[in-house]
Structure formats: C-alpha cells, structure tokens
C-alpha cells in the first residue's frame, strides 16, 4: 500500500535539495521578454520545451495564433483522476524603463528577492509548476492518475488563444486544476468577480465652436452626463446568493485581518466597481465634437449578471435623450467560484498548511483570470502562487525567493494528495 505521507516528504525534500535549480529556472524565464502585447511567445516556449526534454518529457505544441504557442505535457496514468497545472508565459509590458530601479529583464536575485517583470505575475509560479512537474518525473513517482502541465501564451490581454482555445478544441480536460497565479501566501483564490468591459460611443452633430452650446450637439458633454449615470452602477443594492455568503464572509475577514491595507476595499466584494479607463473624442477645440468614445471596466459581484447591467445602462442612458451605442469587448464573465471543499481546493489548502505550518483558507479574487474558463467547462479550479502583490503590473516587480520554493513544495505535495485520493 502506498504511503502518501512518505511520498510527500520525498518530493518536498527533493524540491529543497534542488532549490537553486528552481531559482535559476525562474531567473531564466524572467530574462526572456514575453510582453503581451505584442504576444510573441516563441522564445520562452522553446526554452521551456528544452528544459522539459532534459527529463525525457514529451511536449506537444499548439500554435493557436501567430507566434502564440500553447504547451501541454503529461505524466502518469490514463487511469484514475486527472490534475492540470496551468500557467501563462506572457507578461504585461515593462513600460517606462527609466522608472525601474533595476533592469526589468535581469532576473536578478538580491537580498532574498527575485527581481523583474513577471516575477510575481507569474513567472515565479510558472517556474514552480514546471519544477514540481519535473520533480515528480525525475523521482519516477508512479502516479495513479494523470498530471498535465499546461502553459499558455495569452492571459494578460484577456485573449482567446490560451486556456479558452485549448478547452474549446478539447485538447485539455481534467478533474481539477491548479493555476499558479499570484496569491497571498496562505490564501489561494477559489472564486472571482465577474468582468464586463464595454465601450460607450456617443454621437453628436458638428458645428462651429463659437456657436456652442446653441449650435450642434456636443458628443463629449453628452458623454460626461452618460458617465455620471454609469458610475451609479456602484449604488445598485445587490443580494448575495446564499451559496457564496460564507465565501464573501471569509474573504472580508482576510481583507480585514491579513491584507490589512485592503480593509477599506471590502465593499468591492458586494458592489459593481466602475473604472472609466479611457476617453477619446473631438477633432479641434473650435469644432463641436460629433463623436466621443469611453472605455469602461466593470467588475460584477455575485448576484448580478452582465445582461442585468446592460439593461440598467440602457434604461438610464435612454432617459438622457443622447445618441449612443454600447459595445462589449475584452474581459467578460459573471462571478464564479469553486467549492472550497472540492478535492482540488482541499489538496492545495491542506498542503499549504502542511508545508508552512500556518492556517490556510480560500478567498475571493476581486479581479478576473483564466480560472473562469475552467469553470465554464465544469473543471474545479483555484489559484495559488508566489507574489509580492503590491508590485504586480507595476514598476520594480519582485517576489521573495523563499516563497517560490514554498509554493513549488505545495504544488508537488498537492498533486500526490489529489491523485492518490479516492
């Protein structure tokens, strides 16, 4: 009879013994620029393929769009349960290099920190799942199920060429999924708010600026009035469904007691957030603008759908007497979650506690990620990965090296628990 505890101890000890290799792997990934846009994942995908093949691991390549490569590699048995490790290779652009205190593509380790663009989101987590995958292979652990490593190119722009493309084409499937996205050290995310990005276009009538407001119809001033109505989405009182009330409760506890700087943001879990992201309109200061476009990012809590939000917008904007159109784009989903008692959640949460000797529990994410796609296909999923959250998508992105190592231990141990469970 297999002793799971002995196997877990074995893989955890191996990660510890080879931790310098893990750190070097993470550093190497950061050194490869994989900014999206433009989204060319060729170099980093080929590097990962070469690394995996050192351990006699077969890798399947799927080019879902020009220079966007998905990698899938599996070990274990076709019998039994199937666990997916998932991560993305793309990172957001580094931006103004003069605002960085170090080279964003240096992959430098300094004072216990891994430095560079993608260190937290999510090359530290990506290196962790790759490394845990190879540890199980090199130790020749005979898994009673299947473990698949799925690496995708197109997460940061909310595109369709990564996880959704693989799921739609039936290339991946499973009984559970771990995404190595950044999280708190002890609090993986088991649910997330919905997302509704839309463009509001307001139409006016041009005329000479010297005759405004008596002549023409100003699209920009009409858009300003429309924005005021859009911002009222925050004020909608939403009833949280009973099945997620406990998850909301523990998530607010987390914001109040763990990430204490987030306490002021607790209301976002139960409200529609509204960000007026861009505005563009007009041609010259002396011409009454006939067109104005506004891009809006709304995040939807449990208890309201995209359709209900759209209906609200049409009702309010229709009362203004303006000429407008709403066009959805980018991230779009309703709020979604995985039961914290699902086996894949328990495997990760229990092993966070086992590895760190610290209480762990799942919480809500107030943004969106690839997790929603897995849930669309009824694959239970959660996110857990190393991160220094304040630096994600910002300048001087970094993550503690020790956290990279801890997460890799959790990944390897959780795979054993999940695949060996009934």
UniProtKB/TrEMBL annotation:
<feature type="domain" description="Peptidase M20 dimerisation">
    <location>
        <begin position="190"/>
        <end position="322"/>
    </location>
</feature>
<dbReference type="InterPro" id="IPR002933">
    <property type="entry name" value="Peptidase_M20"/>
</dbReference>
<dbReference type="Pfam" id="PF07687">
    <property type="entry name" value="M20_dimer"/>
</dbReference>
<keyword id="KW-0479">Metal-binding</keyword>
<dbReference type="GO" id="GO:0009089">
    <property type="term" value="P:lysine biosynthetic process via diaminopimelate"/>
</dbReference>
<dbReference type="InterPro" id="IPR010182">
    <property type="entry name" value="ArgE/DapE"/>
</dbReference>
<keyword id="KW-0862">Zinc</keyword>
<comment type="pathway">
    <text>Amino-acid biosynthesis; L-lysine biosynthesis via DAP pathway; LL-2,6-diaminopimelate from (S)-tetrahydrodipicolinate (succinylase route): step 3/3.</text>
</comment>
<dbReference type="InterPro" id="IPR050072">
    <property type="entry name" value="Peptidase_M20A"/>
</dbReference>
<keyword id="KW-0170">Cobalt</keyword>
<comment type="similarity">
    <text>Belongs to the peptidase M20A family.</text>
</comment>
<protein>
    <recommendedName>
        <fullName>Probable succinyl-diaminopimelate desuccinylase</fullName>
        <ecNumber>3.5.1.18</ecNumber>
    </recommendedName>
</protein>
<dbReference type="GO" id="GO:0009014">
    <property type="term" value="F:succinyl-diaminopimelate desuccinylase activity"/>
</dbReference>
<dbReference type="InterPro" id="IPR001261">
    <property type="entry name" value="ArgE/DapE_CS"/>
</dbReference>
<dbReference type="InterPro" id="IPR011650">
    <property type="entry name" value="Peptidase_M20_dimer"/>
</dbReference>
<keyword id="KW-0378">Hydrolase</keyword>
<dbReference type="GO" id="GO:0046872">
    <property type="term" value="F:metal ion binding"/>
</dbReference>
<dbReference type="Pfam" id="PF01546">
    <property type="entry name" value="Peptidase_M20"/>
</dbReference>
<dbReference type="InterPro" id="IPR036264">
    <property type="entry name" value="Bact_exopeptidase_dim_dom"/>
</dbReference>
């Amino acid at each position: 009879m297999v002793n799971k505890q002995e196997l877990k101890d074995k893989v955890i000890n191996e990660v510890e013994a080879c931790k310098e290799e893990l750190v070097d792997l993470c550093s190497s990934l950061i050194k490869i620029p994989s900014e999206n846009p433009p989204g060319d994942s060729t170099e980093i995908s080929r590097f990962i393929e070469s690394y995996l093949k050192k351990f006699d691991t077969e890798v399947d390549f799927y080019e879902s769009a020009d220079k966007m490569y998905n990698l899938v590699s599996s070990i274990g048995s076709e019998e039994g349960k199937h666990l997916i490790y998932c991560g993305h290779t793309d990172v957001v652009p580094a931006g103004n290099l003069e605002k960085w205190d170090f080279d964003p593509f240096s992959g430098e380790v300094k004072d216990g920190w891994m430095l560079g663009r993608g260190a937290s989101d999510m090359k530290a987590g990506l290196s962790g799942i790759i490394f845990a995958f190879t540890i199980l292979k090199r130790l020749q652990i005979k898994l009673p199920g299947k473990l698949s490593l799925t690496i995708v190119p197109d997460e940061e722009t909310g595109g369709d060429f990564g996880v959704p493309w693989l799921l739609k084409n039936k290339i991946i499937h499973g009984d559970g999924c771990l995404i190595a996205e950044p999280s708190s050290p002890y609090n993986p995310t088991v649910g997330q708010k919905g997302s509704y990005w839309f463009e509001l276009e307001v139409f006016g009538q041009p005329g000479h600026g010297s005759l405004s407001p008596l002549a023409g119809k100003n699209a920009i001033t009409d858009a300003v009035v429309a924005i005021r109505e859009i911002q009222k989405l925050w004020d909608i009182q939403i009833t949280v469904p009973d099945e997620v009330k406990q998850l909301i409760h523990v998530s607010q506890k987390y914001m109040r007691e763990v990430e204490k700087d987030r306490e002021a943001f607790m209301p976002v879990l139960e409200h529609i957030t509204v960000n007026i992201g861009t505005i563009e309109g007009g041609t010259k200061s002396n011409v009454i603008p006939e067109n104005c476009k506004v891009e809006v990012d709304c995040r939807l809590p449990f208890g309201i759908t995209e359709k209900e939000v759209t209906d609200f917008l049409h009702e309010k904007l229709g009362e203004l007497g303006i000429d407008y159109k709403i066009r959805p784009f980018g991230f779009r989903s309703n709020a979604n979650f995985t039961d914290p008692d699902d086996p894949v959640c328990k495997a990760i949460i229990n092993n966070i506690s086992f590895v760190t000797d610290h209480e762990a529990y799942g919480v809500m994410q107030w943004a969106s990620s690839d997790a929603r796609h897995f849930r669309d296909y009824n694959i239970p999923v959660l996110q857990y990965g190393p991160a220094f959250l304040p630096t994600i998508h910002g300048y001087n992105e970094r993550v503690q090296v020790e956290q990279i190592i801890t997460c890799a231990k959790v990944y390897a141990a959780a795979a054993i628990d999940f695949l060996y469970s009934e």
